[in-house]
Amino acid sequence: MSLRGQVAVVTGAASGMGRALCQELAHEGARLGLLDRNAEGLASLQEQLRKQGTTCHCAPADVRDRQAVRSAIGALVAELGPVDLLVACAGITGATFADDLAVEQTEAILQVNVLGVVYSLEAVLPDMLARRRGHIVALSSLAGCRGMPFAAAYSASKAALTTYLESLRPSLRRRGIAVTTVLPGFVQTPLMENAPVQPPMARMGPEIAARHILRAIQRRSRVYAFPWSTRLLLSVLRWLPPWLYDWCMARGAMRVPHVTY
Ligand SMILES: NC(=O)c1ccc[n+]([C@@H]2O[C@H](COP(=O)([O-])OP(=O)(O)OC[C@H]3O[C@@H](n4cnc5c(N)ncnc54)[C@H](OP(=O)(O)O)[C@@H]3O)[C@@H](O)[C@H]2O)c1
């Protein structure tokens, strides 16, 4: 599907996969609305994209703030016109341990990763429904398919996001709006660098991840997991009975040196 001239709003645009995806969308000829809480990062991306000839505007906002998200997306619509594509990339992570449930951090993770997407959707959906066209894309995670060790809050947030989108998908599709849930594998971004427990597997760069996400957008896939090793892991994890899942996770988790499982 051609993205030339389409209006794409990307949240979490200042960093990582969101930032790399903006470059891909610009390359495809989309007009971009950039949203993130990192105003400096947004401004540098906007400058870079404008130098390349892309029409783009940025609107700094914290996705936890429902009103701020509405105003920011409203400002982008005023500059660019109605939104054809929303890509919700803004997200945070953090560890959960049995000895430290990190409740404030858990609240923040759920607010950003779940409600942040809901608020972004709320800001674009009425118009998409009226026009009977549009595409909603959100970055969930493999961590949402089963509860990952040391990542209770993050896993729960991504499980909620995946299920939320799955619930909306059939009725939105009937009304002309596609919904794509993206399940990336491990990607080398600031989010991963700050994760207290590092995955043992190799990580791909955000540029390669962005090309995968672009493919998912162009195909209007319902669910898109990448790379192939993630797809494989996903299908295995889904079918493991609870006792076997616990055994596998405990064996892996006990190899993490600085935490008690
Ligand atoms: N990296 C991975 O391996 C991986 C795997 C699976 C899924 N994901 C998901 O992919 C998405 C993008 O992750 P990434 O790895 O590209 O991370 P990233 O480089 O940290 O980018 C996330 C961006 O979202 C922004 N953000 C965070 N909280 C926000 C808020 N409340 N309001 C507005 N913006 C906010 C961040 O700003 P700050 O820099 O100020 O925090 C950052 O610019 C996330 O939803 C993540 O959960 C990542």
If you had to describe this structure to a student in words, what would you say it looks like?
It contains 9 helices and 7 strands. The longest helix is centred in the middle third of the chain and has 29 residues. With 261 residues, the chain is of the alpha/beta class. 51% of the residues lie in helices and 15% in strands. It has one domain: Rossmann fold. Bound molecules: NADP nicotinamide-adenine-dinucleotide phosphate.
Short description:
The chain is an alpha/beta fold. The protein contains 9 helices and 7 strands, in the order E-H-E-H-E-H-E-H-E-H-E-H-H-E-H-H. NADP nicotinamide-adenine-dinucleotide phosphate (NAP) binds at residues 12, 14-18, 36-38, 41, 62-64, 89-92, 112, 116, 139, 141, 184, 186-187, 189-192.
Keywords:
261 residues, alpha/beta, Rossmann fold, 9 helices, globular, binds NADP nicotinamide-adenine-dinucleotide phosphate
